[in-house]
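Project outcomes to date are best conveyed with an example. Our students and postdoctoral researchers have been running inverse folding experiments weekly, and each run begins with a structure described purely in tokens. The record below, which covers 90 residues, was selected by the lab manager from last quarter's runs and is presented without edits.
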């Protein structure tokens, strides 16, 4: 997929490698705060959003982190365009 930035975009936020694992973590709190005040017109999530490894015994969303992040990104999408690239970009 090729992404062309619309003319109205002045600021694009890029985030990656956050490795979120619990909604109560400092990193989660920082992301929540940042997204609430960011002036960007677009957000690019470039991978490694969650702390999950192949072979993890608990692949479910026991901590609720997936639901919480989905809510954060949905709220952000009300103010900016949000794009998510799955996988590891290291």
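After processing, the design step wrote out the following sequence:
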């Amino acid at each position: 997929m090729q992404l062309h930035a619309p003319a109205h975009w002045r600021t694009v936020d890029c985030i990656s490698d956050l490795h979120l694992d619990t909604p109560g973590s400092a990193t989660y709190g920082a992301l929540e705060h940042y997204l609430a005040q960011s002036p960007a017109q677009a957000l690019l999530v470039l991978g490694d959003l969650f702390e999950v490894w192949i072979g993890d015994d608990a692949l479910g969303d026991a901590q609720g982190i997936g639901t919480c992040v989905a809510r954060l990104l949905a709220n952000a999408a009300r103010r900016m365009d949000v794009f998510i690239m799955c996988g590891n970009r290291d």
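The chain has two helices and three strands. Residues 53 and 76 are 27 Å apart (CA to CA). The training component of this project remains on track.
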